[in-house]
Amino acid sequence: MTFTKATYHKLIGPDGQPQYGCFSTPFTEINHKDFDYRTAMDAPANLWQKHFHFNQFQFIGISSQQYYLGCAIANIRYASSAFVYLFDHKTKQLHSQSFLTPLSRGCTLSNKPGQGYSYYKKGKNLIEFIGAPDKHAYQLNVNLDNQIHVDCLIQEHEDFQPLCLCTKTGYNGWTYTQKATALKANGVISWKGNNIAVESDQFLGNYDWSCGYMRRQTAWNWASASGYSDQHKIGLNLAAGVNETGLTENAFWVDGQLHRLSPVQFQFNRKQRSHNWLITTEDRMVELEFHPAGNFTEKKNVLFLATNFSQMPGHFSGSLTDAQGKRYVLDHVPGVVEDHFAKW
Asked: Is this prediction's pTM over 0.85?
């Protein structure tokens, strides 16, 4: 497995262009303001275009065999949004809170993956993602309506290798993503009187840090899982859409070691998303079936913005195979899949 060698410590080089490829280490900064953004006719983009065409979002998930907590902050310039939900596999109940604010009011996202301070605030409601680079960790703090509190740390071990990928998007854009799964998780979740101790022997964490000049209308499917196969800690990230120009963001981790994968197919019925999904690669290195158990969904169509979003916690079964032919069996491993259309 080969990686692209970065020639500059920031994503956008001195020439104003992104560095494309899959990189072995994260960049110190995603300096998108240094990007020489051009229109489709090669003219320099104006300040309005350069500002409003850039999108950024962050997601943290925390899972066990019983619970899945998903939390996200998104800044799409015309609006900022956030959500948090908790799904209980035993009761099949999903509780959620979501927020939407015009423009970028009350929302700031760091341009340094794994570092800096990102937050969404609306009234007394506050969601914070705090990078702790000295610990290779993210702190997630959520305080909503004096009834929902999350205080959790998800942490990579020192030799963990996150997925760091930048690809061309459309004619004149790019997308950068940095992701990691099957991370150590500790803390507490308090949801309207239900206090859940998040302990690393039962819970695992994952994160998604993504940004870029994406297509005006775009769509993707995504799958993420964190669990175990025999004595190995297994993490999984699969996607179809957005990051597919020359490279994919498909990968799995075995005890923190990254194994890259070829393009994947998501087979499911959009009219019946709650039915089982099949996720495979042509080379059969991925042969998975996902069993949805819940559905956090949002549909909005407001003026020139729209979203049709379903993120579904459940379990994966099947197998993953690495480049050396070693097969890892997944049996009821917790995770999520996502079906998302966006116009921004």
From this structure: yes
